[in-house]
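Hello,

Our lab assistant flagged a job as stuck in the queue for most of the afternoon. It eventually completed. Since we weren't sure the result was trustworthy after the delay, we are filing this so someone can double-check. Below is the sequence as submitted and the structure that was eventually returned. Let us know if re-running is recommended.
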Amino acid sequence: MTPSPPDDAVVLLRRGRLLEWATLGWNVVGVVVLAILAVSASSVALVGFGLDSLIEIGVSTVVLWELSGTGEARQRRALRMIGIAFIALAAYLAVQSTLALATGHHASPSAAGIVWTAVTALVMFALAAGKRRTGRELGNPVLVTEGRVTFIDGMLAVAVLLGLALNSLAGWWWADPIAGYVIVYYAAREAVHIFRPEAD
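-- returned structure --
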């Protein structure tokens, strides 16, 4: 893609930063909300989604740092940091979901969790679309990748929402840790894409 003219690049950089600040703000609030909900419901999926939100805070911080400078080396370092965070999330949740299934752990129904994850999904999908478009116009692979991370965050919100709903409405206790495995899958896939882009 042809790089944007200087004036356009300034506007696009400003838009990219605003999108990242919006994501950062939402996830800071989300970590607090999800921590409270996860403890009250004893939900593996909500814990996992809270950790994902915590990682998204780190990712947004990395992208804001990357957008403040230039150079391929800076972009590669930013992408590696994002990839490492996803590997850590996948490993933690794989263990927690397996333990929950092995011990027959039953999460409590969480109406507030259902509402929060539903709203979060809508917000993340909107932010992801903005980042993807802005990153492509700017020719910035870090912002494009982070747009995909945000989209996955929205998909994970949907997965957690389904797990919580099935647990609350149908009594399917195992749906909660299964939703945790969905997060494991997407986190691992995103890490592979970052470290081995040729695998796509």
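-- support follow-up --
The delay was a queue issue, not a problem with the job. The result is valid. DSSP finds six helices and no strands in the chain. The two ends are 20 Å apart (CA to CA).
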